[in-house]
Amino acid sequence: METPLPKAPQKRQVTAIIILLLLWEAGGASIKYSVLEERDSGSFVADLAKDLGLGIGELASRGARILSKGNKQHLRLEQKSGSLLLKEKLDREELCGDTDPCILHFQVLLKNPVQFIQGELQLLDVNDHAPEFLENEILLKIPESSHPGTAFPLKIAEDLDVGSNTVQNYTISTNSHFHLFTRNHSDGRKYPEMVLDKALDREDQPELRLTLTALDGGSPPRTGTSQVLILVLDINDNAPEFAQPLYEVQVSENSPIGSLVITVSARDLDAGTHGELSYSFFQSSNQVVQAFEINTVTGEIRLRKMLDFEEIQSYRMEIEASDGGGLTGKCTVAIEVMDVNDNAPELTMSLLISDVPENTPDTVVAIFGISDPDSGDNGKMMCSIQADLPFLLKLTVENFYTLVTEGALDRESRAEYNITITVADMGSPRLKTQHNITVLVSDVNDNAPAFTQTSYTLWVRENNSPALHIGSVSATDRDAGANAQLTYSLLPPQDPHLPLASLVSINADNGHLFALRSLDYEALQAFEFGVGATDRGSPALSSQARVRVLVLDANDNSPFVLYPLQNGSAPCTELVPRAAEAGYLVTKVVAVDGDSGQNAWLSYQLLKATEPGLFGVWPHNGEVRTARLLSERDAPKHRLLVQVRDNGEPPRSASVTLHVLLVDGFSQPYLPLPEAAAEQARADPLTVYLVVALASVSSLFLLSVLLFVAVRLCRRSRAASLGGCSVPEGPFPGHLVDVSGTGTLSQSYQYEVCLRAGSGTSEFKFLKPIVPIFAGEGAGGDTEENSNFRNHFEFN
Question: Which UniProt keywords apply (predicted)?
Fold first, then answer.
């Protein structure tokens, strides 16, 4: 695709025909050196460091390099000594042909800071080639009628050397008929001309053979020879004459082989064989003979090979027309080779930095040179890159460009750039060359780690095993390499009393959190701490996040029965009148659970009863009530086993045993159970024996004492029957009150707590609800009934 010329300074294209844009110091004066050709590789050329005014170490520190046109490097720089040396043996004739002087251009590139210095190396010629005639024998036909003084130009010798080392003189072997002059062509070449001194006589000597010698100007001179055969011809009156002495023609370099270049034409007034003409090249160079051929009959000049404008831009040749009588005529043909845009531009990369650090603007990425051997517009070039890249092309010195970053690159936005450098000429059609380079943006630690969440909430069930993985924190870093490798750590807790080091630990590589010991919900419900993520860049960057750990309750506490108490003593007996109706409140089981949530939700269940169906337990509040009306046929004594169960997984439970005694009335408050009496009888036989023994020893004394004690006991028994049970003045403490009906005491109940059975005094504990007494509703009757109830059940 054709690349348009830039229209504004902000465009990313620059052309080779604009004024040099010297943004770096380019070294105003060029350095020039000369060296003889054919010197060995490694030969000393110059002390470059000294000539540039730099120290020896400064060349190495500034990254000095030698650049040459194209990919062929003729010189090399020895960094340590600062010497400029030949990289290979140089042949002047191969590099420059017959161009004199032979100049090889090079540049000295100093990378840090960027500086270009132009250099020229003149390759001096040595006389390493001898003159050489294209033909070993030169045929010359001279009529015997030729007058003395007639000149006969001869074919020249070729010498690849230049200057004084090329052909400087010609000589001819000694003879009596001719002498030789050395003449100069208009292009500077020297050619031999033989002059007739004495008239020829065909009958006396029909032919002569002479030796022509060419000498160059070397020391010592080199020579080349050719034989000159002279045939003496009979009289021929008219010599051939060309229609014009100079023919000029233009030929395109891409013309195919065999193409007609031009046709030369001569005429001869003689008749017969003396008027028959033959065309040939005369005193033509080897380049002419190789590139062209001439038809000896028609005078057509055609191509023998494809012409190359970049090698030879023009040819000049002498054409000779000879008749049958030996007379000749000459003309000159000048051929100009027309350039065709047949060479695409070339790009030579001198410096490429494929890894560029981010955040560094105006960084040199590449230095390269461009060239096009075509001429005119065909050799004018423009260089460009894609328009959407953060890079600029800057023309530094002649046909040398520097590719730099336009601004600071950001690796996190784009880590790699594929840059296509396009070099196009201005010919028609346009030819272009593309060179692709890949630039990697190296990372700089300019991004701090970022946690995926600013805060984390973790849940851990209590009673966990030590070293349990309880969760993870995660952070990312947009950088790369070591700059993105993170190390996790625990931050000092804000609460100085929190033993964080003994609670949790963190894996520094992956952020996994572990509980170091078993957690107890009842001791610690939640705790909070900070975590940090730090990269391994220089300097190191870090970020923080908060972690909150919530300890989940495990069902590790069984329900605890507050009432009735179960401490190994005899159970409490509940008295229920036989006249009680269904739903009569016998008692209430009160329990608590140290767990929380659903693990503390309690339910009550009657597991076992003496007479199933007589009593029931409300599952939500633990109230024990009669399930139906009592009758005389029901057994007086009942044993109830009540289970208290929580709602945990797995559920935990506790049980309590209740004794219920059915009574006809409440006249006797103390009614011993048969089981309690039997137990008491079994527990006191030793005491009885001791009392009897003591009575035997001191009967009189003990008799008086026993009488005194009996009197006192009777008084105490009377007082106990009146006030043995006490009514609390208020409800149970608040921590035993459950207004939600989950099984603890309700504020709507008050209880009388009596002495425990089996306490050594044959007393038992009595519990009954206290019914509120309202004024004017038989308060006196209730009091009397209560008093009768107590008196009715009293016994020793």
Answer: Calcium, Cell adhesion, Glycoprotein, Membrane, Repeat, Transmembrane, Transmembrane helix
